[in-house]
């Protein structure tokens, strides 16, 4: 048992410091991998079942990928439990949490993109008076639902990723707000024509990097002059 | 001439607490108690001493109706710890 009265020489002090740093280090890796096992199982199962449905031409009667939404429920409980059991927090953990949180937001944004873009494209084509048709192998001609790839929208998800991770890990609010603005521009861009997507991408760049960069520069200058 | 070792840090339990906190962002009281193998009373007194000199920040909150005490090393504490280690090095490897 440690006692503040026990006298120490220099070697003992150094040994104590080394031992305690090693003990703290050994406690960093306490995650039991539950979340990784959950998502690996769910996504693996969904992918294999969806492949089997298409390859063997059958249907299970519902979209198997909906199971990923159901998996969010146990994930919430796992996260709460892990948070309660966490007795030590490190900068590395904060950074890793930020990476996985932003990854989750990005996946959500990609799903929104996949679901919204075809509808938006159809509306924009209709407004421009463009109608596309396809001729099937049996000679029947029917409307073709094409969609325009919105590259700027996809890039905005990538723009926000490192900014939000850095903002969350370093608790730097301008980057957090910049990344949130970037996600807002991303969602707006899903409903706008390509010309406006470029405008939104430009605004995203300003909010995401330019403004936080200027704030950082200002702080750096102030720090240097002190 | 040897630098005098910081008397606040040159104590077994206080140095152990600081050494634990130097490598982490923050740690709960129970974690520190577990790693130092100290009694809760003694540890509380030593953490209070570290807090009084501004080496650590202590925050108390209730989580699920249980009190939770979290400790975090401050920039002053980091500077003091670094100075202590530097002074130790001088003792162990004296300059010619």
Can you identify the CATH superfamily of chain B?
Winged helix-like DNA-binding domain superfamily/Winged helix DNA-binding domain
| Morphology of chain B | elongated
What's the order of the H and E elements of chain B? HEHHEEH
Q: Give the biggest sheet of chain B.
A: 3 strands, antiparallel
Number of strands of chain A: 3
- Tally of individual helices of chain B: 4
C-alpha-based Rg of chain A, rounded: 26 Å
Percentage of β-strand residues of chain A: under 5%
Show the largest interface. Answer: A-B, 28 and 34 residues
Strand content of chain B: 15-25%
Which structural class should the secondary elements of chain B be placed in? alpha+beta
Oligomerization category of the chains in this entry? heterodimer
Distance between the termini of chain B: 11 Å
The beta-strand count of chain B equals 3
**Strand-pairing-aware structural class of chain A:** mainly alpha
Query: How would you write the strand order of the largest sheet of chain A?
Result: 2-3
Q: How many independent structural domains of chain B?
A: 1
Describe the structure.
The complex is a heterodimer of chains A (226) and B (96). With 226 residues, chain A is mainly alpha-helical. Helix content of chain A is 72%, strand content 4%. In chain A, helix 6 runs antiparallel to helix 7 and helix 7 packs antiparallel against helix 8 (194-225). Chain A is flat, with a radius of gyration of 26 Å. The mean pLDDT of chain A is 85. With 96 residues, chain B is α+β, with helices and mostly antiparallel strands. Chain B has one domain: Orthogonal Bundle (Arc Repressor Mutant, subunit A), CATH 1.10.10.10. In chain B, 52% of the residues lie in helices and 20% in strands. Chain B contains four helices and three strands, in the order αβααββα. Chain B has helices at residues 12-22, 29-36, 40-52, 75-92, and strands at residues 26-28, 56-63, 66-73. In chain B, strand 2 (56-63) and strand 3 form a beta hairpin. Chain B starts with 11 loop residues before the first helix and ends with a helix. The model of chain B has no long low-confidence stretch (mean pLDDT 88). Chain A binds chain B through residues 1-4, 6, 8, 10-11, 13-14, 16-17, 19-21, 23-25, 27-28, 84, 87-91, 93-94, and chain B through 5, 10-16, 19-28, 30-31, 34-39, 42, 46, 63-64, 85, 88, 91-92. Strand 1 of chain A pairs antiparallel with strand 1 of chain B.
């Amino acid at each position: 048992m440690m006692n503040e009265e026990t006298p120490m020489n220099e070697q003992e002090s150094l040994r104590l410091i080394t031992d305690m740093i090693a003990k703290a280090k050994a406690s960093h890796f306490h995650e039991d991998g539950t979340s990784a096992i959950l998502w690996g199982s769910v996504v693996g199962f969904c992918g294999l079942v969806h492949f089997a449905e298409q390859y063997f031409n059958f249907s299970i009667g519902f979209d198997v990928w909906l199971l990923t939404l159901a998996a969010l429920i146990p994930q919430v409980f796992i996260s709460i439990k892990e948070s309660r059991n966490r007795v030590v927090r490190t900068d590395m953990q904060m950074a890793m949490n930020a990476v996985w949180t932003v990854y989750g937001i990005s996946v959500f944004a990609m799903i929104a993109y996949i679901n919204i873009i075809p509808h938006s494209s159809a509306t924009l084509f209709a407004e421009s008076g463009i109608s596309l048709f396809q001729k099937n192998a049996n000679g029947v001609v029917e409307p073709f639902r094409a969609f325009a790839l919105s590259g700027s929208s996809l890039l905005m998800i990538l723009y926000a990723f490192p900014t939000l991770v850095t903002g969350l890990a370093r608790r730097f609010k301008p980057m957090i707000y910049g990344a949130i603005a970037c996600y807002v521009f991303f969602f707006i861009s899903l409903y706008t024509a390509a010309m406006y997507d470029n405008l939104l991408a430009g605004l995203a760049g300003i909010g995401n990097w330019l403004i936080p960069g200027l704030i950082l520069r200002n702080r750096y200058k102030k720090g240097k002059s002190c | 001439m040897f630098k005098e070792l910081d008397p606040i840090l040159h104590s077994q339990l206080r140095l152990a607490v600081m050494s634990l906190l130097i490598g982490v962002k923050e740690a709960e009281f129970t974690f520190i108690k577990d790693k130092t193998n100290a009694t809760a009373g003694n540890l509380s007194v030593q953490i209070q001493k570290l807090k009084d000199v501004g080496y650590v920040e202590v925050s108390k909150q209730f989580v699920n109706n249980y009190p939770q005490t979290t400790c975090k090393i401050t920039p002053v504490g980091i500077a003091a710890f670094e100075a202590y280690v530097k002074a130790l090095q001088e003792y162990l490897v004296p300059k010619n």
